[in-house]
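Re: that chain you flagged

S.,

Sorry for the slow reply, it's been a week of failed gels. I finally had a moment to sit down with the sequence you sent. For the record, here it is as I used it:
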Amino acid sequence: MRKHKKKDMYISYEKSYQSRRRGRSNTFANVILVVILAVLLGIGTYYAIRIQSGGDYRLNKEKYLAGDAELIPDDIISTPEPIITVTPDEVDDQEEDIHVEIDSREPVKAKGVYVTSRAIMDKRDALIHLADTTEINAMVIDVKDDNGRITFRMDSPKANEIGATTNTISDIDDLIKLLKEKGIYPIARIVAFKDPYLAEKKHELAIKNKDGSLYRDNNGECWINPYEKEVWDYLIEVSTKAAEAGFMEIQFDYIRFSTGKGMFEAYFGPLAEEKTKEDIILEFTKYAYEQLKPLGVFVSADVYGTIISSSIDAGLVGQNYVEMAKHLDYICPMIYPSHFSAGNYGVAHPDLEPYNIIRKVLTASKTKLDEIPEGEHRAIVRPWLQDFTATWIKNYQVYDGLQLRHQIAGVYSVGYSEWLLWNAASNYSVGGLYGD
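Prediction finished late last night. Pasting the structure tokens below so you have them in one place:
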């Protein structure tokens, strides 16, 4: 109602009545107008919010498919996400602690054979045919061999500095391409601490006798010192180049100390007074895994089969079966029947009973690795089996397809499903392999 000025002391009731009627009419019209505007505004706001929040799925389909929408519409999921309330301090803590690691590597259940660098060149067609026609689906190929030589040209400063690279595998790119086209899983064999070539070139990295001379094993070969960090970096450099070439797994062999005569008198430097052989081999294993896993390759290691149950052997070579398994994707015990002494695991002559010795050793392996708590990382066991005849032992037999199949059956009897075959000449008993 309009306010009158003080001088308007006289009030005309007739005018006042008319004014009230006009005011009521205007007020009623205003109310209707306001209601209409409010309804329109409400409808507009509703649809604006729906579009803004992604509620209209049809208008925002591309956003949802791309994962960009902030809210999930009811027609996609009916159960709401729980609301989690955190304090600012908790938010800061979460930002520091949250780390999501996505492992894009695709594991392969490998049934493989060892292949020398010379064999992959000279016997390539036969080896490819073996994989084409049998259950073989992996090849462990020499990249850094027992002599310390690199089997193909690679841009490795350390290897090139000492002239370790060769051109034995002259077509590495074509080879890797062929293997992958054939569905053959390529594994790079990297011989670690048995490296006479590097030891002769760089004496400061070699194991020495206490008088300062180079240590030599029973074959007169030098070994490099696992306590030297420069040696670790060299192995990682070569492994990295192998990964870049297309190998999908790096497998370290001779990841241990020599067991040759005179090792008890060898000198490993001052660090050996603080850390045992097992300590240093385990540290290298951890280091290698941390460096190579981000490259998208799997990491494995060959270990003595006897270390599974013998702490004495583990200490001599520096291999701790359980602890190493915590920092590898695959652990590959070399459980050749001929390498076990008479009576081991209750088997009178292991080479004559391939099924029994394999079954008993791998049963011990399973028991040993069960020491790792459930839920913690442990390597998959992928044993090396014997496809050669050990004529140098007293109680031996000729190994062919039958003995090979007995060993494989021993692997399966314990619940393991992967295996590798060793033959130094890369000649394999086809009769013991199932057809593809």
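What I noticed first: Residues 72 and 79 are 10 Å apart (CA to CA).

Talk soon,
D.
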